[in-house]
Sequence to fold (206 residues):
Amino acid sequence: MPLVRAAELPGEKPPADADGDMTALLADLHSDDSSRRRQAVRGLALHPWAVPALCARLGVETAASVRSVIFTVLIGLRSAATVHGLLPLLRSEDVGLRNAAIEALQQMPDSLAPCVGDLLADNNSDVRICTVNVLGALADRRAPRWLEEVLRHDPHVNVCAAAVEGLAELGDAESRPALEALPKRFPDEPFIAFVVKAALQRIGAG
Fold:
């Protein structure tokens, strides 16, 4: 699935009066001094137009403390640009970075919602699993319905298993048909029947 680049989103360019301060902070974002980079990130918290640069920095930042501050600032600057800047991290080989992106996206339900359909249709099952993990803790009333669609249509057993785990936390009585039907889709995977039964008991639907 081609992800929209932040540079393609409207409103990226800052107003002229913000250029000077932001330019200096962006320069410090690439300093060899990690404390200076942290300070720059905190300064950029006042500049929503810096979201693409902050997201790009995550891919190369080696200091855990700086990375942590970047995520904190991005959560504060939540927007469509932030979501689109974080989505490529769902493909990262860095587990810590990928998990931090998942946790950040879970706090941006309104901005993430328009992307969910495409993410759940991604050709990469790992991306779909990451998306399901985001949905499993998403404060959005649509999350259980999205997870139920995964159970009905996703061809990958591990993606569906992750969706069952999400429904164990978020599911309700409406989730029962999709959960009960899942073992029939994967009759040769006994663990699916086990996790479905546990989920149904957890949500009081079985």
Observations:
- Residues 110-206 form a domain with the Leucine-rich Repeat Variant fold (CATH 1.25.10).
